[in-house]
Amino acid sequence: xxxxxxxxxxxxxxxxxxxxxxxxxxxxxxxxxxxxxxxxxxxxxxxxxxxxxxxxxxxxxxxxxxxxxxxxxxxxxxxxxxxxxxxxxxxxxxxxxxxxxxxxxxxxxxxxxxxxxxxxxxxxxxxxxxxxxxxxxxxxxxxxxxxxxxxxxxxxxxxxxxxxxxxxxxxxxxxxxxxxxxxxxxxxxxxxxxxxxxxxxxxxxxxxxxxxxxxxxxxxxxxxxxxxxxxxxxxxxxxxxxxxxxxxxxxxxxxxxxxxxxxxxxxx
Length: 268
Fold this sequence. Notes:
Elements: E1 10-17, H1 29-38, E2 39-46, H2 53-58, H3 64-78, E3 82-85, H4 95-99, E4 106-107, E5 111-114, E6 120-123, H5 137-163, H6 173-178, H7 180-199, E7 204-207, E8 214-218, E9 221-225, E10 234-238, E11 244-248, E12 265-266
Parallel strand pairs: 1-2, 2-3, 3-4, 6-7, 7-9, 8-12
Antiparallel strand pairs: 1-10, 5-6, 8-9, 10-11
Helix pairs in contact: 1-3
């Protein structure tokens, strides 16, 4: 069960976040800040693409709300939480800077997490699995254009919803699986990640990168993807018993975490 936190609503054993993309104008920083104020954790694992160095290199964008997210994370560290950081493909160049934050972050390329129930899980960003996913260049570019166009629409629509007091709602979640090419890419990525973890002798793997939250078993190996805070607004949470569940904001904010059950199913 989740315990009652001192400042937030609940305390988890471990909180896994990835693909926040601070510095990217379509990052959902307001939603993330609201989530971070609600949940505390003994350990926070940042699995890559926290600050979007690639986006900042193309066009600098930063607001006080982006700074607030960093302040909330560092405040958790000052309050005693362990903060583990694994660089992704968008923030790999910032690893040295992160290492210089006076020991506030532990920086690793890969990290092994042992759950309270004894499972050994490999934690990575996930970009290393792209090399095994063959995709024609023209098809990749076309998919990127479709994604960016829909993402821009999703961002504008949700800014309007926010101004009207309506909760965030993803427009991309169903599209990713509705498009055959996208669905095949996601399936191959998940299979590749689970296979790698199994071959290395781990009970499962936790990653991000593809912006598609999931928690399932693939061939007996646990596969967990934290999702992102550009589209899905999701995180992975481990409770004090070692059970994992996906948390989607704000849908799961409407119910008590204390009574929530872990979401885990075998992959089709």
